[in-house]
Write a structure and sequence with these properties.
Layout (H helix, E strand, L loop, with lengths): L7 E3 H13 L5 H12 L1 E3 L14 E6 L4 E8 L9 E3 L3 H6 L7 E5 L5 E11 L1 H4 L3
Parallel strand pairs: 1-2, 4-5
Antiparallel strand pairs: 3-4, 3-7, 6-7
Helix pairs in contact: 1-2
Length: 133
Amino acid sequence: MSSTPPITLTANDVQRLERLLDDMSSYGPAAEALEQEMARAQVVERSALPPGVVSLNSRVHCREETTGKDYHLTLVMPQDARQEGTVSVLAPVGTALLGLSVGQHIDWPTPGGKLLRLTLLEVEYQPEADGAQ
């Protein structure tokens, strides 16, 4: 990853993600990338998470800068990523979006070696702002 903007995670999300990583039978590059992101994050209580920050189960609007293609995605745990419009937190783009704030962008390599630049345009829904668990 060539660009690493500051990120913020909730303590609740960190606990859920730590359990996910602990329960994984194999620990490959996706898990390592998620662990690295968690290690560099500022961790706050749910009530202190600003509204424009991506948390688990947030729905976001982002743009891939090279193509100009817009995406509306919901960031979910791997077992919930079977529906259209969802992205697993273990997918490279999911890991990259976690903790990102509106206006920030990330550069993230795809499995094929291409570098994507995604800009977060809006957090359309954030569970913490809505009072959801």
